[in-house]
């Protein structure tokens, strides 16, 4: 449904009907009185807030053209083509033109090696500003990875098909680590990028994008052909990730969790729209904390509270040690730190997160001015000029000259927009009058 006002009315009526059904009353007058009390702005619902989203200019070429223009000189034509092929599998649809600020962020991060902060408006594609550089780094490095070995016959160790009876006792297969088939020498496991969010809801939203970009059926097919069946692994590490506690005592709990995940994935396997909301068990999304502790995902998604806990415990120490070894193994390797909603880190809480990031980077062996660190951040606002750069320098502990701030330039409204809006003048007028009448009626009742 494309009409937001109609969607609002339908949702409001749905909630009101829900209350009328299980909490029905014998007397219709009481039902009507209850509905009149609830069916008011500020009680059960709020009037929708409609925000006009500014339009941003496109760069004038699709991602393939952009990749060739920016990377042919350093990568060569075949590798730039290879990157464009994979990106078209889900990260950025073929034929779609990036915005100018997306192209600029990509160029500054990938080509010039600068730290980038994007402050464009809502709905301007800030996610692609870091997703495309991350994908580029994975495609580039993975060309040298060795092929994974054959899967263990019990890789889906939680499945009912690996259950048998021994007399009257039920026996289950032992746990098999998710990536037990990989060669740690030719395909080292490490956190290649940390995606840090202030809220778990934002973490969940990012998982959907990563499933579409890195674990879609076209992306898997490309990786099977061009990367010997390797996967670009990603994992959510929050309080919702199964499971915490002792491994010896928690096997049964994890088995139950993975069975439920497999069941849910099976229910939506034939529905592409619903499938992106659920992990696929044989794909690139990591199953559990234990699996990520054994072999860290290429992209780790978490919040600052969980990152703080991880840095204080020994159980996750191997994840950071593996990442440090990966960085030390080749000085050309780059660790990406992605910080979303940078504007939320202000005052005392912001100072605490800033120190947390210093501890984290020190754990990886990355100094403040290391060329192996690449920062990409998004923010709803950032002060202009020196004040903004000072904030970045103080928050990240990194020289402000390393940062490129991309503010974007919204496209001015086309002259055709005015006649188009004028055609709906009556509807806007009636809507404003209806809101005024409702507001006056609300205050008269009070």
Question: How would you explain this protein's 3D organization?
Answer:
The protein has 446 residues and is of the alpha/beta class. It is 48% helix and 9% strand. It has helices at residues 4-20, 28-38, 63-75, 77-87, 100-111, 126-142, 200-214, 217-226, 247-267, 272-275, 289-294, 304-312, 317-329, 347-363, 385-396, 417-422, 425-445; strands spanning 115-118, 163-166, 169-172, 193-197, 234-236, 299-303, 335-339, 373-378, 403-406. The strands form two sheets. Strands 5-6-4-7-8-1-9 form a seven-stranded parallel beta sheet. Strand 7, helix 14 (347-363) and strand 8 (373-378) form a beta-alpha-beta unit. It is globular and about 70 Å long.
Provide tags for this entry.
446 residues, alpha/beta, Rossmann fold, 7-stranded parallel sheet, two-stranded antiparallel sheet, 17 helices
Topology overview:
Layout: H1 4-20, H2 28-38, H3 63-75, H4 77-87, H5 100-111, E1 115-118, H6 126-142, E2 163-166, E3 169-172, E4 193-197, H7 200-214, H8 217-226, E5 234-236, H9 247-267, H10 272-275, H11 289-294, E6 299-303, H12 304-312, H13 317-329, E7 335-339, H14 347-363, E8 373-378, H15 385-396, E9 403-406, H16 417-422, H17 425-445
Parallel strand pairs: 1-8, 1-9, 4-6, 4-7, 5-6, 7-8
Antiparallel strand pairs: 2-3
Helix pairs in contact: 3-4, 4-6, 5-6, 12-14
Summarize the structure.
48% of the residues lie in helices and 9% in strands. The protein contains 17 helices and nine strands.
């Amino acid at each position: 449904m494309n009409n937001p006002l109609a969607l609002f009315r339908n949702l409001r009526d749905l909630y009101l009907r829900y209350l009328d059904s299980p909490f029905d009353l014998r007397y219709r007058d009481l039902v009507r009185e209850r509905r009149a009390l609830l069916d008011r702005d500020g009680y059960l619902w709020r009037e929708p807030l409609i925000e006009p989203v500014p339009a941003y200019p496109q760069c004038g070429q699709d991602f393939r053209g952009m990749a060739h223009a920016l990377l042919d000189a350093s990568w060569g034509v075949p590798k730039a083509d290879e990157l464009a092929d994979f990106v078209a599998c889900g990260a950025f649809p073929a034929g779609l033109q990036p915005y100018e600020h997306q192209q600029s962020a990509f160029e500054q991060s990938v080509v010039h090696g600068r730290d980038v902060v994007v402050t464009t408006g809502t709905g301007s594609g800030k996610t692609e500003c870091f997703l495309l550089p991350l994908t580029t780094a994975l495609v580039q490095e993975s060309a040298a990875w060795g092929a994974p070995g054959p899967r263990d016959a019990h890789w889906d160790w939680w499945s009912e098909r690996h259950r048998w009876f021994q007399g009257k006792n039920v026996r289950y297969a032992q746990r098999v680590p998710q990536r037990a088939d990989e060669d740690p020498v030719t395909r080292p496991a490490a956190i290649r990028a940390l995606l840090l969010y202030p809220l778990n809801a934002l973490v969940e939203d990012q998982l959907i994008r990563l499933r579409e970009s890195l674990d879609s059926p076209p992306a898997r097919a490309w990786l099977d052909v061009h990367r010997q069946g390797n996967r670009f692994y990603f994992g959510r590490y929050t309080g919702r990730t199964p499971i915490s506690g002792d491994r010896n005592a928690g096997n049964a709990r994890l088995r139950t969790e993975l069975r439920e995940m497999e069941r849910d994935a099976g229910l939506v396997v034939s529905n592409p729209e619903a499938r992106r909301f659920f992990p696929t068990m044989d794909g690139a999304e990591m199953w559990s904390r234990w699996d990520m502790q054994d072999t860290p995902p290429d992209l780790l998604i978490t919040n600052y509270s969980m990152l703080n806990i991880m840095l204080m415990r020994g159980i996750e120490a191997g994840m950071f040690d593996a990442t440090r070894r990966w960085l030390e193994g080749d000085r050309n390797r780059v660790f990406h730190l992605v910080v979303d909603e940078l504007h939320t880190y202000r005052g005392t809480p912001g100072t605490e997160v800033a120190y947390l990031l210093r501890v984290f980077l020190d754990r990886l062996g990355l100094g403040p001015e290391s060329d192996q660190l690449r920062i990409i951040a998004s923010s709803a606002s950032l002060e202009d000029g020196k004040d903004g750069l000072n904030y970045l320098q103080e928050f990240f502990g990194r020289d402000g000259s390393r940062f490129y701030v991309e503010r974007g330039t919204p496209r001015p409204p086309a002259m055709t927009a005015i006649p188009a809006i004028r055609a709906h003048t009556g509807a806007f007028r009636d809507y404003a009058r209806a809101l005024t009448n409702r507001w006056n009626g609300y205050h008269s009742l009070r």
